[in-house]
Amino acid sequence: MFGNLIVLAALALGQAEAAPRGSLVIVGGGPDNPVVRQRLLELAGGKKAHILVVPFASNDPLGGRKTADVWIASGAENVDILDNSDPEKGAEQIGKADLIWMRGGNQNLLMAGLAKGHLDHLILERFRKGAVVAGTSAGAAVMSSAMISGYAGPRGTPEGAKPKLSSGLGLWPDVIVDQHFVRRNRIKRLEAAVRSKPELVGVGIEESTAVVVSGRGFEVIGKGPVIVLDNRRAVVKEKEKDKEPAKGPSADEKAAEAEAIAAVTLTPGQRYDLDKGLLTPMAAPMATATAATAATEDASPH
After folding, report:
1. What is the Cα–Cα distance from 243 to 247, expressed in whole angstroms?
2. Which residue from 26, 232, 274 is spatially nearest to 132, judged by alpha carbons?
3. How far is Cα 133 from Cα 100, in angstroms, rounded to an integer?
């Protein structure tokens, strides 16, 4: 009996140690939001925190420098740009970073740049040890394990409306992140992604908005909204099959059919738990958010 208690205690300790100690701040793209940037600096430890810019999502050779300059203008005193041409240097930069910031662009380019020198695994390790990892647009898309990397076909074709899923960094493995969500009317894209991965929760983040992830929950900050699509909580109803001459199973056998994915719209200040659901009073209906879109859904991956 005593031996069993020791084993259980050891397992619990191992699980506690395996839980990431860092925070995620995932931004939906769009114009910079001072509220989000200030929260990032606070989480990282203030203006003296070591900030590491990951520039690989952009083809602009000066993209990293431009992003670093924005952080410096915000008061950050220690800003570096990740170098993937030298794996040892890159590993050293990641190892001392308090905040790892992934800029926008193309998430496929970003993942390819991080894969060089196995820097992707090092970022995950640094997050587990306590660093803040954050990103906007493409830098948001890579946060989940199942990453929306674009569309399955050309725009205007049936496949062009279906999301293409690739492997992301896996920092937030229980979700699928989508960004520019209301602005680019991406609700159908995220719905399709969640239906293809029903065990995962879809989190659609609007521009100039962020979710601050800690453990199993997150808080919305910035402009808003954030829309959560949870296929695990789908509305299910019993549907009678068409009655035909029986061949094998009974013709009047009932089948459960998922009618709609559960959807919740969150506004700034609200919190959501992946297990418990909404932790704060209900926001406006999802239709309000989707009706506010100012652009049709585009076929760009970021």
Report:
1. 11
2. 26
3. 5
Predicted confidence (pLDDT) at residue 255 exceeds the cutoff of 50: no
Q: How far is it, in rounded angstroms, from Cα 88 to Cα 52?
A: 15
Average pLDDT of span 15-22: 68
Q: For the residues 216-231, what does the mean pLDDT come to? A: 95
Residue owning tokens 């820097």: 119
Q: Which two structure tokens, joined as six digits, stand for 134?
A: 């954050």
Look up the CATH number of domain 22-230+263-291. Answer: 3.40.50.880
- The whole-angstrom separation of Cα 194 and Cα 261 is 9
Omega before 225 within 30 of 0, i.e. cis: yes
Q: Which residue has the tokens 């890159």?
A: 90
Check residue 277 and give left, alpha or beta (phi > 0: left; psi -120 to 50: alpha): left
What is the number of alpha carbons within 13 Å of residue 72 lying toward its C-beta? 11
Q: Is the pLDDT score of 77 beyond 60?
A: yes
Q: Where are the domains of the chain?
A: 22-230+263-291
62: its two tokens: 């000066």
pTM of the model: 0.83
Average pLDDT over residues 97-105: 98
> For the segment 123-144, what is each residue's pLDDT rounded down to a tens digit?
999 999 999 999 999 999 999 9
Catalytic positions, written as ranges: 137, 180, 207
Question: Quick check: 57 and 66 in contact, CB under 8 A?
Answer: no
Per-residue pLDDT averaged across 191-212, rounded? Answer: 96
